[in-house]
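Researcher: Good morning. I'm working through a list of sequences from a screen, and I'd like to move beyond sequence-only analysis. For each chain I'm collecting a predicted structure so we can compare shapes side by side. This is the next one on the list. No need for commentary yet; just the structure.
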Amino acid sequence: MLAGRSCNEDAVVVRVPAGRALVQTVDILAPVVNDGYSFGRIAACNALSDVYAMGGEPWSAMTIACFPEDLAENRPEVLQDIMRGSLETMIEAGCVSAGGHTVRDADMKFGLAVTGLVDPDHIAANSGLRPGQRLLLTKPLGTGILSTGVKAHWEGADEAEELIRRWAGRLNRAGGQAISLFGLSAATDITGFGLGGHAMEMARASKVTVCLDIHSLPIMDHVLDYASDGLVPGGSINNKLYASCRVRWHTEKDDDLENVLFDAQTSGGLLLAVEPEKVADVAAFLEEAGDLAREVGHVLPMGEAPLYII
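Model: Good morning. Structure tokens for this chain:
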């Protein structure tokens, strides 16, 4: 897939296929699970997701690893496991590992700088929403809240961690393929701003209003219980506070569901804007690949606020 040659340990020369454009993105995160392999896999899925969200295909990636010096000296297998999880995920995605960079750091962090390929005439964008479109979500919500419960060793933490591994460690490949196959005009991956924040971002870019059905949200087990117990990360709370003046509730507000709506996700699913006549076909394609295809809302002409909750 990659045509080129290595110039030194930090640079690779590549030739871009004719008729294709580059998608470039970078993402790095702190551990959300307790084993290195799963963390490496989740970090890779998280970084690759931006390429899929535009309808592209990952092409090459460079690793960014920040690692405590004492851990590197005393437990080098941890970094080895992280790298192995990341590399196997890149191979699964058809993406070439093109080197990387390591940094001594007091706190462990890991991620990828990714280059992808996309058809420049068929790109899904934040600004591509149109009134009448339906919104499909491809993964359940709650990784931020679950990871807070895992760190606190809360009841059900082992099951919560396994849910994070299952969903955050899953590539958004099928969603990216659906964008290309069905000609979808708008999509985003759900990450740090939460579903509500990313939906609002799309609405403002597209000059429309997004309407989300709060009771249709797919939510992982334990999430609502943890939210009720106050296990909501600071980033999720900040999302909710920032968005509050731009949201209109057309149903009774539920504090726990609101926390889920704005929960900062790690390697969340794609939010796909689909024309009504294509919903059944897109949903069948996603479900055949093992993804969710939950309809969580629709697009309206621009109203008094970018985001309505019903």
